[in-house]
Amino acid sequence: MSFSNMPVVSVKDTTIFQKQHVVLSDVFFEIAKGEFVYLIGRTGSGKSSLLKTLYADLPLYSGDITVAGFQLYQIPRKTIPFLRRKIGIVFQDFQLLMDRTVTENLLFAMRATGWKDSSKIKQRLSEVLLKVGLGAAGNKMPHQLSGGEQQRVVIARALINEPHILFADEPTGNLDPQVADEIMEIFVQINRSGTAILMATHNYQFLEKYPARVLKCENGKVLDSNIHEFDYRTTWFY
Ligand SMILES: Nc1ncnc2c1ncn2[C@@H]1O[C@H](COP(=O)(O)OP(=O)(O)OP(=O)(O)O)[C@@H](O)[C@H]1O
Predict the structure, then answer these.
(1) ipTM over 0.90
(2) Is this prediction's pTM over 0.90?
(3) CB within 10 Å: which end of the chain, N or C, has fewer?
């Protein structure tokens, strides 16, 4: 298989742990380049633990995971920043530096990931801000922005290095429904331009409005709508 056909995420025979506690076992799935996949399941079912393992925030003790070409089993600590440059991460809580402007927040992430050329930095800054509909907000402080706008900045930050995949952990969990919808629309646009997305969500309206493959954490396993038949609506309680 040539590298260009390789899945962006490949998980084989993996166990997901929180400390010594097994959260998920026998996990197998792949995510193709440019694919959009939802991650659902009741609270405590293991969605965040799975995502954290995929972006190497939790160690992989058992199984075989490759993300954006990086093997995660025993990945050296010094390699993790290079993995993180190939992926984007968006959380529910916005995690911006509150004492810095939007531009400074993005610059901080760019410098941390090796950007040096000031004209390229300027160009990429305006590209990512435009992508999230914040072309004019560069000089604002986070507290001058709404929750939805702050989340847009986080998405812009996650896009800086043209990630192969975005991992989003309930990215609209703190937003009201209208704003959540606008943020979801941004993810859809990002996906249409070729970036794979794995999004944990409790918002089943997204699944109805933007149908896509679903991975579901349930009873310590991960079910895959490509393989298993399940109706997410009848089990959507948490
Ligand atoms: N830091 C931690 N230390 C120990 N156990 C943890 C930790 N974080 C989560 N867990 C446990 O791991 C299991 C899975 O939790 P996880 O946060 O992955 O679920 P989740 O599906 O993302 O839930 P939610 O929808 O509420 O975000 C739960 O039993 C939880 O109590």
Answers:
(1) yes
(2) yes
(3) N
